[in-house]
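ok posting inputs for the magnesium ion job
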Amino acid sequence: MSVWAIVVAGGSGARFGGPKQYAPLAGRRVLDWSLDAARAHADGVVLVVPAEALDQAEPGADVVVAGGATRSASVRAGLAAVPGDATVVVVHDAARPLASPALFATVIDAVRDGAAGALPGVPVIDTIRHRDGGVIDRDPLVRVQTPQAFSAELLRRAHAAEPEATDDAALVEALGARVVVVEGEPTNDKITDPADLATARAQLTGGRTMQMQMRIGQGFDVHRFSDDPDRPLVLGGVRFDGAAGLAGHSDADAIAHAVTDALLGAAGLGDIGQLFPDTDPDLAGADSMVLLAEAVRQVRAAGWRAGNVDCTVVLEAPKLAPRKAEIQDRLSAVVGAPVTVKGKRAEQLGSLGRREGIACFAVAILFEADHPGVDPAAP
Ligand code: MG
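and the output
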């Protein structure tokens, strides 16, 4: 008996404010949890996604198809991709990431044992009443969840006339077939608004602190003073009027360059020379804070966020202290995390001590951007 699962993730998340199936949840996406649970007891999984997400790789699914305008249309799109020899089809909403593999097994087994369909239901705990008076007896009522399993033949027949329902069980019942209710899972709630993600995260992590991945990076840069008396000195995006400028292809901002390298190194993204070659004529006189901002963007795109960056600037002159707060504020704003800067003299030792140039050392720490302990809404 071949069992196929259809994971429906075609919604636009109008109430949620975006496609909730792609929201980060405990280090993965909502739909990854649903795909894993579906796969545990199925021979194959069809994932139904919004049309615009069709070219995105989904290693958790065997087949990826575009959804339709309604939930029923999306189920039909998934059903069309289920192989003809499948005997049981289990339909699951991606927005229920907490459904356990055991729940899939329970509904599938019920159909294998002869039921036309099986769905999980949980008791209604609240009193239910009519708006205009009169309490409804809640004992015969259940709240309906997914996964719902069906005889593949019946589910295909139920969808043949392209009907609409919020639930496949109603369509199968409309054929006169009986759908059984198995015991649902109280935690198997649908993610409907962003607050539900926090509840789901607490369930998945059991309130435990999960080990957060972190990476450390180091950066160094040195520039000699320029012979050009008109060249400005720029350090950490701050201009020092009247001070001798540094020589370089860009604005020669040694602090911004060291911070950029520390961040790129931590993320394993190479170095500033690879990203912004000093042979690129477009980068002549470039504002290094703009280059730093681009590096920060790439670090974030790679799944990291900066914890903090600390810099030591080795220079005899000018004095850094009066501009230190300004430099730190500018760098922190671009990096999106605290950046601290310390000035250090070279005590007349070596080239830096002879006032031939300025050097900067930086260390940066990065954290996993989607760690379960991290609020995805935080900057
Ligand atoms: Mg440099």
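notes: The chain has two domains: 3-205, 214-368. Residues 374-379 have pLDDT under 50 and may be disordered.
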